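Troubleshooting log. The previous structure file for this entry was overwritten by mistake, so regenerating from the original sequence record. Sequence copied from the archived sheet and checked twice against the printout by T.R.
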Amino acid sequence: MLGLVSNFITLSCCLLTVLVPSILNILVYPISKRACLAISHYIRTVCAHRVFVIFKTYKHFSFVGYNDNLEKLPEQFIIIANHQSLVDIALFMNFLRDKELRFVAKDNLSRHVPLVSEMLRAEEHCMIPRHGKPSVAMGTIDAFGKRVMERKQIPIIFPEGTRSKDGSLGTFYTAGFRRLSESAPLPVAVCALDGGYKINNLKTIFKNLHNGFYRVKVLAVFPPPKNKEEQVALLEKGKALIQAQLDAWRA
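Regenerated output below.
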């Protein structure tokens, strides 16, 4: 009974937190990009944090953002990380609230996802076509890399390309990262996250929220890779570091 009550309170508080800005963004997006950007900024800097506070208060769900290596982060850099949930976006927004983050994501997220779609489009995140020629996807990344360089933003790419359903680390694909590092030749921060796969959908979220956790940590910062060999080697090192961190957390 107590579990049902806490679930109801958690859901109600989350809806109160995100419903108004989500509806406003949908209504405002076709009319005013400036207003939509202001609402999107509020979602990134306020709503993402409040949702984790609600989870902590009513479900004892812990967000753990480790401070290790944060001082090593340069002014601008690329983040590569493993991918477990759509909530990974909110995780990084909460972890690096003082940064202007921009994500590489599939374009299906830019339509019909409350709270997320209008924000991704208004802020000009990198929306990769799910279907179509590879040259179109590469051109989208090129334009994105140029934007983030000019605007001093922090691009985030998930080399797995799709979310892990069970938390295991999948294949790291090189094409997207290589193209991004060429169009935005920046240092690369490798980050590990864990816990998102347990709250990946409505069926599991309330089952696993109680006493659950969501962790994220910067593992290492590498200088900008200079060629294909260095790009591929960096991804291999990054994947090994992430796997070792996941093993350590789960030991």
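The helical segments are 2-28, 33-59, 88-95, 117-122, 134-151, 175-183, 202-209, 228-250. Archived copy saved in two places this time.
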